[in-house]
Amino acid sequence: MSLPQNILQRDIRHTVSTESNGTIHLSATMLDPYHDMELHITVSRALLLEDIELIWRKSPSPHCQDITRQLETLKGTSIGHGIVRRVCETLGGSSGCGNLRSILLGLLPLAINAHAAYGHSEETEMYAAMDARMRGVCAGFPKET
Question: Model confidence over 134-143: pLDDT tens digits?
Answer without folding.
Answer: 777 778 778 8
